[in-house]
Write a structure and sequence with these properties.
about 210 residues; mainly alpha
């Protein structure tokens, strides 16, 4: 691999890490499974696979197509904000009702339920589309055709590294999450983060409207 190709891979890697390090709904699911010592690696695999598919679609042209249609981008921004606010509302209800601590008898703790939830968060989440297809995809599609695979590979590697490190790190915090109070604090933090991210998307929507 030549230095130029290394540079494109590194650019994709750094961009991916910068984007994926802002936790969203997928990350929240991994965190909850990791700290509760529940099955997590199937969830990690689905999350990474979803990112790989969406990044590939974006770099192959879907990102540029969406980016050239302000109406579609505006729709994704508002849909993403609404999704994040809905997700935050669910965690707020769990916090208020003291239902934040996972119930081992619930469907979510079954492998099938977990994977179904991960698939929904990975593919039916407008926020994920904005990061992978629109942002990473449109930037990658603008690279020379011969270098696009390296850029996309770097972004895909970032997803893999991020979710593996996140899962391993959360598993080390298991002892801290033996109390329902700590789980409620985690949900409270998720609520604040979701509102913040939704606010950023709404701000981007207003900025887009002015262009």
């Amino acid at each position: 691999m030549t230095p130029d190709l290394n540079a494109f891979y590194l650019e994709g890697l750094l961009l991916g890490i910068g984007l994926f390090a802002a936790p969203g709904p997928k990350d929240t699911l991994v965190i909850r499974q990791g700290v509760s010592r529940s099955p997590v690696w199937g969830v990690v695999a689905v999350c990474v696979f979803a990112d790989i598919i969406l990044i590939a679609l974006g770099v192959m042209g879907l990102g540029s197509l969406l980016g050239s249609k302000p109406g579609l981008v505006a729709f994704l921004l508002l849909s993403g904000a609404a999704y994040l606010l809905w997700f935050g509302w669910q965690r707020l209800l769990a916090c208020v009702r003291n239902q934040s601590m996972p119930d081992t008898r619930s469907n979510l703790t079954s492998q099938r339920g977990l994977l179904r939830t991960a698939v929904i968060l990975g593919f039916a989440n407008p926020y994920a589309w904005l990061d992978t297809v629109v942002l990473i995809g449109s930037i990658g599609a603008a690279k020379p055709v011969s270098q696009q695979a390296f850029f996309a590979g770097g972004a895909m590697t970032a997803s893999l590294v991020w979710f593996v490190v996140l899962a391993l790190g959360c598993q080390r915090l298991t002892g801290l999450f033996r109390s329902a109070k700590v789980w409620r604090l985690l949900d409270a933090g998720v609520v604040i983060l979701m509102v913040y991210l939704a606010g950023m998307l709404i701000a981007d929507f207003h900025l887009l409207q002015r262009l």
